[in-house]
Amino acid sequence: MIHKTFNNQPSPQPESQRENIFLTRCKVSKSVYSLIIDSGLYCNSCSTRLVDKLKFSIVPHLKLYKLHWINEDGDIIIKDHVNVKFSVVNYNDQVLCDVVPMEACHILLGIPWQFDKKTTHNVLTNEITFTHKQKKFVLHPLTPTQVLEDRV
User: Fold this and answer.
1) How far are the Cα atoms of 17, 62, 82 from residue 79, in angstroms, in the given order?
2) Which of 33, 56, 61, 75 could form an S-S bond across to 106 if both were Cys, CB 3.0 to 4.6 Å?
3) CA distance to 61, 66, 99, 137, per residue, from 77 (Å)
């Protein structure tokens, strides 16, 4: 009697993105930094740490405003913004960001960037799709394992 044996190893399942925000890495001035894309934000933001480290030229806001979602200490007055050139894999761009003291990431892209790029967010895979300079891009988030490795 001949028995055919199959490899019963389960195929690796992709890690679920169900409860994750879109977090990836980007390159700014030849170094790697964290980038979050969030449709719940009404501004594009850059961390004060990144601005200080790379010595970006800040531009005063013509109209000051307050943010109260950043921390529990109360409102933060946003006074400055900065142009940030960044890349994610082969997508290169420049975006005007408010300078914000935040620890969640280095760059936060909100509704203004998503609106300008006409992005589509696939909530199942947590991928962001858009067209830039007549070329289609699909940005992929870090896996939960990669996020954990970055924190360590």
Assistant:
1) 35, 8, 11
2) 33
3) 11, 4, 10, 34
Backbone angles phi, psi at 30, to 5 degrees: 70, 5
Q: Is 126 left (phi over 0), alpha (psi -120 to 50) or beta?
A: left
Residue 148's SS3 state is: helix
Domain boundaries, the chain: 22-151
Say whether 50 sits in a helix, a strand or coil: helix
- Rounded CA-CA distance 34/50 in Å is 10
Per-residue pLDDT reduced to its tens digit, 75-130: 888 999 999 999 999 999 999 999 999 888 999 999 999 999 999 999 888 999 99
**Separation of alpha carbons 34 and 84, rounded Å:** 13
Backbone angles phi, psi at 82, to 5 degrees: -150, 145
Classify domain 22-151 at the CATH superfamily level: Acid Proteases (2.40.70.10)
Q: What is the pTM of this model?
A: 0.84
